[in-house]
Amino acid sequence: MVNNICYADDMVLLAPSISAMRELLSVCEKYADDHNMQYNADKSEYMIFQSENTPTTDLPLILKGETLRRAEEVKYLGHIINSRLSDDADIERQRRAVTVRANMLARRFQRCSGEVKRQLFLTYCTSVYTVELWSSHTVEAMRRMRVQYNHAWRALFRLPYHCSASGMFSAGRAPGWAVLLRRRSASTRAVIFASDNPILCAVRQWPESPLHDTWRKYHVSFL
């Protein structure tokens, strides 16, 4: 079982119970002492993913003599994770980001040619960070994201809001929202299935996971 994820100086510990987490923290404390390192407890927090047996009171976790605070939502490497394992907050974050970028493009490049606008849209509005990881969300959250993505193209090309989304993307040779989801999911799946990384191998070996179920819904071809 994977019990830690590290990227540069960002570390995540994963444990099935409070006692197991305390053991992991003890290992970290010993490593820090042996290598003359220091953890910043003020920037460290813990989250308990909700289930039927999730405790309602905070359970003390100590790091270097300081009690860690419990969080219901954190951002790790730019992706929002909450205790309900819902992607709605991260989808809303990306929806707002697309809105800001689309308004900036429409304001600054309104006199540019259609091809320039198309390239700007592909560069700034299709790079929706971690979209391929959204596997637990409400229909409304994804609908709002799709509508904003469509509006971004309309705003850039000054099209009426009632025009067909599929028609305008087809005419403009740009991916619609459904196409973007399929492409990104297929690309991520290809990376996972070609990797020897133990974390990605764990994802690959769990075909019943919500992530795989979501990719199937996007009509990704599974070999």
From TrEMBL:
Taxonomy, superkingdom: Eukaryota
GO biological process, one term: DNA biosynthetic process
InterPro entries recorded: DNA/RNA_pol_sf, RT_dom
Reverse transcriptase domain segment(s): 1-81
Name this protein carries in UniProt: (diamondback moth) hypothetical protein
